[in-house]
Amino acid sequence: MASTAAAQPGLTKPGNNSLARRLRGGDEVAWLITLLFATSVLAVTALLIGELWLGSAASREKFGFAFLSSTMWNPVTDEFGAYPFLYGTVVTSVVALVISVPIGVGAAIYLSELAGGKWSDALTFLVELLASVPSVIYGLLAIFTIVPMMREFIGPALKSSFGFLPLFQGPVYGVGYLTASLVLAIMIFPYIISVSREALMSVPREQREAALALGATKWESTWQIVVPYARLGIIGSIFLAFARALGETMAVTMVIGNDNNIHTSLLSPGNTIPAILASEFNEASGTYHPAALIELAFVLFMLTLILNGCARLLILVTTSKGSARA
Amino acid sequence: MKRPILAGALLPLLFAGAAAAADTINAAGASFPAPIYQKWFEEYKAKAGVAINYQGNGSSAGIKLLTDGTVDFAASDVPMTDEQIKAVKIKPLHFPTVLGAVVLTYNIPGVAAGLKLSGDTIANIYLGTTTRWNDPKIAADNAGVKLPATDIVVVHRSDGSGTSGIFTDYLSKVSPVWQKKVGAGNSVQWPAGLGGAQNAGVAGLVKQTPGAIGYVELIYALQNKMSFADVKNANGKFVTPGFDSVTAAAAAMTKEIPDDFRVSIANGPGDKTYPISSFTWLLIPSQIADANKKKAITGFLTWMLADGQKDAQGLSYAPLPAAVVAKEKKQIATIK
């Protein structure tokens, strides 16, 4: 505010700075209104943290930090622990990223650097269309196509070729961690493409031209100059996709198998934090069951917060000469 | 829970508008009997001119809203505990409305219909100790049926539900091991298997997965023409679930039904009894201050016990036995 007033000394006559007079100039009104809107972001965040903190009080007092490592989830005896859900959430999201990052970044490079104008526009339109499909549709798609495929083909194939790894052992039900990861991968790769493409497109023309002028091939210029220059945006797109995968509820609930025990095998059923919240909140009764569910929501919130912190850190560490700065 | 977080915070907003507009009565709770409640309230509105809003958002949610005083009455698939009753300002009365049952549906390659299961076997399957369809214990109950050596895939509800409540209550009664290891509740710690959301999720997983067994409401199984197992009752007879065998389960228990109607009829006596049966209840405050509302609610209860019961079978619910109806009529008179 001070800077606004200082920047425009001509608008206010000296000695006449009563509020009413100052409000007459539109700048102050606009400043107040937009400030109000901006603080609503703060208010919502504070409300969210406050509500999660207060709502989980009973659970936090009873279980303490053991909540994070306990594998119990027994509404009958009121013993709760977050570990199986935390594990499921992180595993499905990480596996989804492993699948979708190469595809997403590769497609973005093609769309921004290699594809022709109309072709690129058409594909970009489709990518944005995919990004806006409601998740329940992906869930249904998964139930009717990915689950049977997983049970009949992918699961048995993985078992016979990688069965020596504990990750691919045990019975194949069709639903499970890997199925959820596949659905998540399909859901998040449009985000990676969309945001990475924007980042690649905004690399200045001069960078490319300079590389080409120095004798680099088209691919060398793309891979060694353009992609590193745009890496902030690409990393950003990956973290955006990760955050979305962590929080995805409907599609995961439909295909993860909803088993509250931990299994090493990716072919086994499991559960995630958003999925158990969607499943159990409505019928949770007593003191501790709802409180434990709210604490799970709090844990998920903290997880995304930590993730955002890591993203910042990564950007800070990798920012060097020749790349765009945050 | 005193602080209503999600449903509790949103529903009053929805209801506030309706309540202000007219003399509407609001109710919420069990989703399983919601179709028949909607039909009853509609018919009763046409007859008596009283509108009753019903939100089928789940038994626990209904009890929460009743405790907060947000709704005029609630509905539940499981009776309230003493603790829950104490938390409500005006003591609620339980009124059984119809009967429901939980049936076991299966997908066994080569066995299209006619599977028979005893309670102990069901408990062992859900405990994860019986793992193959050709297990001698299952075979003993199914002479003449060729059971394959397929692995059993156990399917349960992933969402908290009165259906799971009825099923786990039954398992706790037939299996001491189940009672000790798992217990009964709308959500429990399942020792084995996959979870599906709602009846449809369980039915879908069973249909898709060879070797699967799951439990759904009788109504859902009938409407979707699914095959379900005969279950051995306490008298040692295998009974096919259906309206008659479910009503019979309640009739056989009439003498044991306490005055407050809070009773589980799972694994009850009687040759014709289907053992995984249960009442579903309306929870009505024992004192209703508003004279108009009192007249409307007691009027509805009286109508429901007489004419309303006739709708039950048409919507695939088992009607109450006559003795229970007579007993409930006496309880209506006690509402002040």
Rg of chain A to the nearest angstrom? 25 Å
Number of strands of chain B: 11
Arrangement of strands in the largest sheet of chain A: 1-2
* Percent of residues in helices of chain B: 40-55%
Percent range for β-strand residues of chain A: under 5%
Outline of chain A: flat
Give a quick account of the main beta sheet of chain A: strands, pairing sense, barrel closure.
2 strands, antiparallel
How many structurally independent domains of chain B?
Answer: 2
In CATH terms, what is the architecture of the largest domain in chain B? 3-Layer(aba) Sandwich
Q: Given the helix and strand composition of chain A, which structural class is it?
A: mainly alpha
Number of separate strands of chain A: 2
Task: Give the CATH H-level superfamily of the largest domain in chain B.
Answer: Periplasmic binding protein-like II
Tell me, rounded to a whole number, the average pLDDT of chain B. 86
Tally of alpha and pi helices of chain A = 15
Distance between the termini of chain A: 25 Å
Predict the CATH topology of the largest domain in chain B.
D-Maltodextrin-Binding Protein, domain 2
Order of helices and strands of chain A: HHHHHEEHHHHHHHHHH
Strand order of the largest sheet of chain B: 2-1-3-11-4-8-6-7
CATH class of the largest domain in chain B: Alpha Beta
